[in-house]
Amino acid sequence: MARISTSAVRRVRVEPAGAHFASAFALPLAGLPRRTAEEWARTTFEDTPALLRALLRAGWSGVLGLRLGPRVSARHVIGWPTVESGPDRIAVEARAPSLTVRNVVTVEDTRLLWATYVNFEGRSGRMLWSVAAPVHHLAVPLLLGRAVRRMG
After folding, report:
1. 86-95 tens-digit pLDDT
2. Could you give the dihedral angle defined by the CA atoms of residues 111, 80, 67 and 119, in that order, rounded to the nearest 10 degrees?
3. Beta 72-73 vs 21-28: how paired, if at all?
4. How many degrees, rounded to 5, is the angle at CA 132 between CA 7 and CA 70?
5. Model's pTM, two decimal places?
6. What pLDDT sits at residue 2?
7. pLDDT, the chain, mean
8. What does the alpha-carbon distance between residue 126 and residue 109 come to, in Å, rounded to a whole number?
9. Which residues contact 113 (CB under 8 A, 6 or more apart)?
């Protein structure tokens, strides 16, 4: 297996597709075993130490107010309801009173693309995401890098 470091995960531009905020990260797939988008999403979020999973869920539900489902479920990824699923693409979406967040994981020929889209309900959603976005931009590359090591 190729050694992929967290630095291999790069922030890339993505069209907002109607969202108020959009960001994306790309991971080169050369030398990595073939996985579905759902396998990537589950490994990235669920195949983490229990404390990290608890911190993720606490941030999403406690800080952002996202309504999550069961932590362990075929129709949820660590509580995020699946709204679209196929071998090369999965979308999970959670809502809060002030914002809606959608994570879309797409497996392309040479890379994995992890895109996040956020829609705000008024100023409170925008302010809340402005606090969460820096954490998001640190967490996604770290979690993807960890997923690569776990899949090895």
Report:
1. 999 999 999 9
2. 30
3. unpaired
4. 95
5. 0.92
6. 46
7. 92
8. 34
9. 12, 14, 24, 25, 26, 104, 105, 106
Would you state the structure tokens that stand for residue 81, as one six-digit string? 């309801």
49-103: pLDDT as tens digits: 999 989 999 999 999 999 999 888 889 999 999 999 999 999 999 999 999 999 9
The C-alpha atoms of residue 34 and residue 83 are separated, in whole angstroms, by 23
